[in-house]
Design goal:
The longest helix is centred in the first third of the chain and has 27 residues. The chain is built from 11 helices and 2 strands, in the order ααααααααββααα. A hairpin with a 2-residue loop joins β1 and β2. By secondary structure, the chain is mainly alpha-helical. It has one domain: Up-down Bundle (Rhomboid-like fold). The protein has a two-stranded antiparallel ribbon.
């Protein structure tokens, strides 16, 4: 695993998360609580929550997803098209702003709810995943425990449908609305930097029915 912005982000997130596992006071300072943002001005937590996780499984799932899809996006998409420096800069912006964008729906829904809190890089990772899907909609993806390859152009919409369903149903303890927000940002970011990828995506969709 070569040292680039992707591996650097993973190392930082893993390091801070493990420190927070052993120091709950530190973890509480980084938690995202929309109520505290609105009423106490702690807007920095809209970023800091990205670097902490609930447990090891939560951390590992996010980081493995980030690594495999992020590697495709970074090395075979962004760096190839924009060069090493600019490509890695795009990836960092995507990750950080994806995590921020993922907090917007929870903020709107919970800004006056003192009991709501969330943590984890899931929203930022969703931004990376959907940016990778937009960049290469024809690639095949494997879902954990399902031994078949699923075209990215199929996986993306199915994932979003599940997240919308789970968010509406509620009671899972998972911030599905943050996943949706991150995914939407990932799509938007790719379209901003390379609008032609939108046409590639629709061509891939049409190709399913041919």
């Amino acid at each position: 695993m070569s040292l680039n912005i992707l591996t650097l982000i993973i190392l930082v997130v893993v390091g801070i998360s493990f420190f927070a596992f052993k120091n709950r006071e530190f973890q509480n300072k980084l938690l995202y609580i929309p109520y505290d943002c609105k009423h106490n001005g702690r807007y920095s937590t809209m970023f800091t929550h990205i670097f902490i996780h609930a447990d090891t499984n939560h951390l590992l799932f996010n980081m493995f997803s980030m690594y495999f899809l992020g590697d495709v996006l970074l090395n075979y998409g962004l760096i190839r098209n924009y060069g090493v420096f600019a490509g890695q800069a795009h990836f960092l912006v995507l990750f950080m702003l994806g995590g921020l964008f993922a907090t917007l729906i929870p903020y709107i829904r919970n800004q006056d709810n003192p009991n709501y809190r969330s943590l984890g890089a899931s929203g930022a990772v969703s931004a990376v995943i959907f940016a990778a899907i937009m960049w290469n909609p024809g690639m095949k993806l494997n879902i954990m425990f399902i031994p078949i390859n699923i075209p990215a152009v199929v996986f993306g919409p199915l994932y979003l449908l599940y997240e919308f369903y789970a968010a509406k149903k509620g009671g899972t303890g998972i911030a599905h609305d943050a996943h949706i927000g991150g995914a939407v940002f990932g799509v938007i970011y790719v379209l901003i930097i390379n609008f032609e990828k939108g046409a590639d995506f629709f061509e891939a969709v049409l190709g399913i029915f041919n």
